[in-house]
Amino acid sequence: MSASAGEAALPPPAAAPRSRLARFRDSDLWASFKRSKLAIGALAVTALLFTLAIAAPLISPQNPYDPAQLDLINSNLPPLWQAEGQAPFLWGTDDQGRDVLSAVFYGLRLSLIVGILGVLVSGALGIALGLVAGYVGGWLDTLIMRVADVQLTFPAILIALIVDGVAKAAFGGALDTNATIGLIVVSIGLSFWVQYARTVRSSVMVEKGKDYVQAARLIGLSSPVIMLRHVLPNVTGPVFVIATINLALAIITEATLSFLGTGLPETMPSLGTLIRTGNRFLFSGEWWIVAFPGLALAGLVLAINLLGDWLRDALNPKLQ
């Protein structure tokens, strides 16, 4: 009896810790995603376009960046389903003999690279300035916010054009392709940092008065450590929403710069460069040169925007 009583008094074995994937599948965010057919469709389209961009060298019939694979005899061929279409040019060719389908795949790749890097630059700059402004306060907060207010009076595309024009005037023709891509990334980053800074500043001003921040100060942690290790993880929720929406804006900005002739060169075309090239032939009947890059750009931006709208609503506690 005593042995049985002792065994009954033993505490139950501790449950194994759940993985992050298991916790995510039980979260409200996952439940909201499964209920939204629009979000599921947007994610499917986004994932498909990302996959096509990543696998472009493997699945493209032609490398549109390799002059050795281009032949002017194949220029301005219509899509394959039309009478004058030729294999393997499913979506036809442009004025240089480039396969439009391959150019769209590679253009997606460049547009996504520039857009993602632009979001990383703008996010890093805006988050850093927002943390400093919200945590330090005082004259530094006033200075950063007044600069942000002044920049908000200008359209983002105008800021990007100014930065791009000043840099090209300073360096002249010394910029190669990689330097041009870097310049466009910096231009986009300097155009969209304000949203991150204002959002992070507002969240930091709420967080810095909480008990965990006061406790970190009492044990002697420095301000940079408190900001990066304790405050920053608690203000990143809205940042993800802004980054998702700004990815679409960054891709549009790059396409606009390329369409205006100040973006990527025609030797490494993005979607904007392809649209600019096709626009010259639109009224002569070669509609496919501009139509397919335009549809790819519209589909990519629309899918990312729909994901951003869903994420904003899913993370808003007032709509739960």
From TrEMBL:
PROSITE patterns: ABC_TM1. PANTHER family: ABC TRANSPORTER PERMEASE PROTEIN, OLIGOPEPTIDE TRANSPORT SYSTEM PERMEASE PROTEIN APPC. It is a multi-pass membrane protein. Keywords: Cell membrane, Membrane, Transmembrane, Transmembrane helix, Transport. The chain crosses the membrane at residues 38-59, 112-140, 152-171, 177-194, 238-260, 281-307. This is Dipeptide transport system permease protein DppC. Residues 108-308 form the ABC transmembrane type-1 domain. Belongs to the binding-protein-dependent transport system permease family. Signal peptide: none annotated. The lineage of its organism: Bacteria, Pseudomonadati, Pseudomonadota, Alphaproteobacteria, Hyphomicrobiales. The gene is dppC. It is found in: Cell membrane. InterPro entries: BP-dependent_transpt_permease (IPR050366), MetI-like (IPR000515), MetI-like_sf (IPR035906), OppC_N (IPR025966).
